[in-house]
Write a structure and sequence with these properties.
Blueprint lengths: L2 E6 L2 E10 L3 H20 L1 H18 L1 H12 L3 H19 L7 E4 L7 E8 L2 E5 L7 H12 L3 E5 L5 H11 L6 E3 L4 H10 L2 E5 L2 H13 L4 E4 L4 E5 L5 H13 L9 E7 L3 H13 L19 H16 L3 E4 L14 E4 L16 E7 L2 H9 L3 E2 L1 E5 L3 H10 L4 E4 L15 E2 L2 E2 L7 H5 L1 E8 L6
Parallel strand pairs: 5-6, 5-8, 6-7, 8-9, 10-11, 10-16, 11-14, 13-14, 16-17
Antiparallel strand pairs: 1-2, 3-4, 4-20, 9-19, 12-13, 15-18
Helix pairs in contact: 1-7, 2-4, 3-4, 3-6, 4-5, 9-10
Amino acid sequence: MTTIDSYNPADPDDLVASVPSTGAGGVAAALAGARGAQRDWWALGAAGRSLALTEAAAAIERAADELAGLVVREVGKPVAEARGEVARTVAIWRYYAQAPFAPAGEVHEPAAGPGLLLTRRRPYGVAGLITPWNFPLAIPTWKAAPALAVGNTVVLKPSSEAVACALRLAELAGLPEGVLTVVPGGGEAGTALVEGADVVSFTGSTPVGRSVIAGAAGRGVPVQAEMGGLNAALVLPDADIERAAAHLAGAIAGYAGQKCTATGRVIAVGGAYGPLAEALAGALARTPAADPSAPATVCGPVINRSALERLTGAVDTARAGGATVLAGGAEAERTGWFLGPTLLAGVPAGHPLLAEEFFGPLAVLLPAADLDEAVALANDTRHSLSASVHSRSLEVALAAADRLDAGMIRINAPSSGVDFHLPFGGAKGASYGPREQGRAALDFYTASRTVSVLPAGEH
């Protein structure tokens, strides 16, 4: 029997979980079970679904310490961030526990004569969710909770490197059998899920995301895909350089840069370049890669050996092409997959670091003569998810925000960070389909129906 084995990235000899891999047949069975459970789940009504989600939130909150420890161990997230993720997960369940009572349609006047025109939103049936390892509790929750709130059942295929977190989350949620089912597995399971679900939501890499989009769209099934970002931070000459450097260091090194909203390109405008280079290199040097279980750790390990090799290889080829390492650039001398937070300047044109998301504690520093050039550099990517602008002038910052392609723009704040009650998503190739999170998710997981009500005997 094939198994899914998940290891601790801070201690690769530590096997966190080994569970049977679900093949296509197992996914089909899970979908059939979810489809059978959906009728009863919908029949619970708003009050019943609200109560179930509220109780799930309470159960997860009671297990907060256990879950935080599991997140640290399975995906190497620093313990302070792991606790924050658990708290956010609880808050998301509670937020969507109120969603069953939200308006599910509108009433309109008919064009002529008596009667009513109604729009009503109804669940699709079974939501197929494919989630990554970097937010092993929050991302499955912000997809599953709204889908469940509006009456769908859920089949979730988590990343193989976060399977223990997903299984424990579903267990704690305590929902009726078939309402929330986890199917550990690889590409075969993901393909089967896309081929059988009634609505699909994906977060992960661009190549896999594109195949998910093609598979779902080819069936005429609603699909959304979040595929990461190569995010830029613009620092203007009038910015508070020390404060901006602190924000950028957190957005580069936090959780080893393994966030789709992490900063990968720092664009210094005009006279900001020299002071920012010095301040940011210093801030990163004070943020070493360290044991994720230590309370003060900001940068833990990257997820696995291949990720570490890809990052160090990128640094080596950039250096060979003439780049200068301003901070980091070497593996940390400790057990596990650790890379010190790294800042490169002078990366040669055409290098992959200027075009691709590397998902690690690594950023490039770029000069721009003025705001026009900075905006052009920031927009020169297909992965426009998040951006940040740092300036004391609100007028300048808002003008820059209006011209940036990114789906989320933060002013005088790190590019990383998400408000779960607002729409989430990027521009260009970063995202596909409707936004997730907030009320936008309720629309995505439901279909609109128009109902015409005419008096009996009217024609």
